[in-house]
Design brief:
CATH architecture of the largest domain: 3-Layer(aba) Sandwich
Number of domains: 2
Radius of gyration: 19 Å
Order of helices and strands: EHEHEHHEHHHEHEHHEEE
Helix content: 25-40%
Strand content: 15-25%
Shape: globular
Length: 271
């Protein structure tokens, strides 16, 4: 396992490697990240993992400062997983060069998380675009727990004709059904139980919607979620899984997209 903090040294190392599987992370590694890394190692190349907490994608400085970090623990885990390369860029290192491609922001960036987190996806795509330009991976591995993020990164890659294939990986969940997330580390035991109740409730509502679609009423669901212990609902929407337009019939393949708060901790999911 080789660790790089300089983009120049990293580029020199990987210059002649044509098959790089890239897993971008912000650290605070969990079972979801482990799943991405294990899958990347099945593609018969070199696996490169980045750890960079991107300040450009946080709307509030306090959220950036409170984001869970444990680099020592992360590096021990990555060594155990036999990752080939790790890139730990500084702010200066990753933003000190001009990129070839301009960011492409699809109109979907203004929906869901984009409504309340102005500039969030521009910040995400800024850093991902830089990583792609720098590393030139053959594959990039993304978890669909962050469905909107994965969708927008894919759109950017296709629009700019970047020679990297997106490998979307299923959401990994805790035993109680909660999607694995670095932010889960900030939850109390009680909040973790509430999050589990929310997911179980929404899964049940989706099953019912497939049978009696007209009975799916967001107003009632929001009220029920508040009663379960949710502090605030950022959004909850029923969208077609492919077109991402509001679902009108139970004959469609659809997902429930949600962002909610437990006290000050924001969680997202799609079911």
């Amino acid at each position: 396992m080789k660790i790089f903090k300089s983009k120049h040294k990293l580029q020199k190392e990987i210059l002649n490697i044509k098959n790089i599987s890239f897993v971008p992370t912000m650290g605070g590694l969990h079972k979801g990240h482990i799943s991405l890394i294990k899958k990347s190692k099945n593609f018969n190349g070199k696996t490169l993992v980045s750890i960079f907490v991107n300040p450009k994608q946080f709307n509030k400085k306090q959220d950036f400062l409170k984001y869970p970090r444990n680099l020592t623990k992360d590096l021990i885990l990555l060594k155990r997983l036999k990752v080939d390369y790790i890139y730990l860029p500084s702010l200066k290192d990753i933003f000190s060069f001009k990129v070839k491609n301009k960011i492409y922001l699809d109109k979907f960036s203004k929906k869901l998380c984009g409504k309340s987190r102005k500039g969030h996806f521009k910040g995400v795509l800024n850093i991902v675009n830089r990583f792609l330009d720098l590393i030139k991976p053959k594959y990039i591995f993304l978890g669909v727990k962050d469905f909107q993020q994965s969708y927008l990164i894919t759109k950017h890659i296709l629009k700019r004709k970047i020679n990297t294939k997106v490998i979307n990986c299923k959401t990994i969940r805790e035993k109680n059904g909660v999607a694995c997330s670095t932010r889960n580390k900030n939850l109390s035991k009680h909040q973790f139980k509430v999050a589990s109740k929310v997911i179980k409730y929404l899964k049940n509502k989706k099953r019912l919607a497939k049978k009696r679609f007209l009975n799916f009423k967001l107003v009632n669901i929001k009220s029920d979620l508040k009663n379960l212990g949710v502090s605030k609902i950022d959004y909850i929407e029923l969208l077609n899984s492919k077109t991402l337009i509001k679902t009108k019939s139970n004959k469609e393949n659809f997902k429930i997209f949600i962002a909610f708060y437990l006290n000050k901790i924001r969680l997202i999911d799609n079911i």
